[in-house]
Amino acid sequence: MKAIIQVLNQKMSNLRFFVYLLVAFALILTSTVVVLLNSLNYYEPADTFYSKAPGQPKSFLYVSPKEGRYSVGDEFTVDVLVNTAGSDVVATAAYLSFNKSAMQAVSIDTSDSAFIMDAEKEVNNEQGKIKITIGKPTPGVRDNAAKVATIHFKALEKTNPILENISFDFTKGSSLYSTIIIDDKKGTNILSTTQGSKIFIN
Question: Can you name the residues that pair with 105 across neighbouring β-strands?
Answer without folding.
Answer: 153
